[in-house]
Amino acid sequence: MNRQAYPTDLTDEQWELLESILPPAALRGRKRTVDLREIVNAQLYVLRTGCAWRLLPHDFPKWQTVYYYFRGWRASEWFAQLNEGLRVQVRQAEGRAPEPSAAILDSQSVKTTRQGGERGYDAGKKVNGRKRHILVDTIGLLLYSKVHAANLQDRAGAKLVLAEIKDFFPTLQLIWADGGYSGKLIEWVATTCLLTLVIVKRTAEMTGFQVLPRRWVVERTLAWLSGQRRLSKDYERLPETTEAWCYLAMVSLMLKRLKPA
């Protein structure tokens, strides 16, 4: 790397860890000549700063090359796989089982821009844009991310998430959620997903701000995601692109936990 380092750059130890689980080069076609570490550094720069692809600093590889890799990894779901591989390592480093037995579900509505694409109006949050549904384990690590129009109710969005993850996490038994997921969804989760959905509600005695058990974990993860400027709003045309950024944000966080700078 013959340039001045950016704060978002991977350290040698972080890159060594990530390189071991990155997708291999294609067996056919032109041989790869680009430095894959610089590709990842450029993607992390876009994630943290929120800049447009065309405004990527010139000391990175060409923005077209960086975007080419991002689009390919998004289409092949490599960002989700990188998140899964590192999540297992973080859990084991903390003395936990590789796969979770309990999780927390929540959503976040964010505004979109004139980029276009799927969107809707969330009357509860007074937001015209998209809703990010995430499922996290008990230490806040991302298990699954689903982005859809904000006008879709929480219970309907939860079905999109839980219907897709029921076969991915065989050890999962219990899910906590807030009052927006109560009602018939509890029975649907039990019969369709064979999971137990527990609603964590505020009690009548609670006044003002209160930290609710379990719910604060997923809210902290949503704050982690919003701390990345590319995710402060939804700038993407495709919901799948926002999902990829969510996974990359968690990959960055977990690399720092496993290999602190």
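Next protein, fold it too.
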Amino acid sequence: MSTAASLVQREPALRGQTVVVIGGSAGIGFETAKLARSEGANLILAARDPERLHHAASQLEALSTEAFDASDPASLERFFGNLPTTIDHVLVTAGRPHYGRLIDLDFAQARDALTEHLLVTLQVARNAAPKVRPGGTLLFMGGTGARRPGIGLGFAATVTAAMPALTASLALELAPVRVNLIAAGFVDTPLSASLLGEDLEKRRNQLREALPIHRVVEAADVAALAVHIMTNTALTGATYDIDGGQQFVRGA
């Protein structure tokens, strides 16, 4: 018997399911959508940039797309209101980290930063939960990098600490819809490139030397975790770290 003939055929893990990705045009969102599509999922993608969103949707054969700012409550409510009656999973990767000294952060900046993370999470949960089938998933992105206090990390640390508690509370309130959080360290994405600019390759090399895994975490690594959380129906209310051990290495 040939090796090929002996392989067991596996049913695609998300066949016939609908996966919504907010922030699905690039980085972690795009890679998760691509993996979900390869596992048989139907895709609904949302992002801010219409051109980039259209390109991603054409690559992944998405059912539909909508370009909007997820931090705008009215746009978010309209988006979920227009979705099909039943969806299976929602991943939210929209938003970016906020760095800087707390005493230099004005209240308008603070409100915007909170909205991008904690309040968007609440808005998505409120609007998505009635559409998600029992056992389906709301999946949010957090981080591990600000778990150690540091100057310039105060606001990021606040969000980092709050998101697991918010996730666990939502999991209890929205059951049997499952709610989980992915906490990532540095991930090599276009967002990281935009934040680091010319220092990107230096940061990559630093992490290759310092991390226990001896490589940089890629968006595809996070996507694999996201799809696993979608398909494993025993997982809810939890935070899943994926940083290659970055939080355990001083100075990384």
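About the second fold: The radius of gyration is 18 Å.
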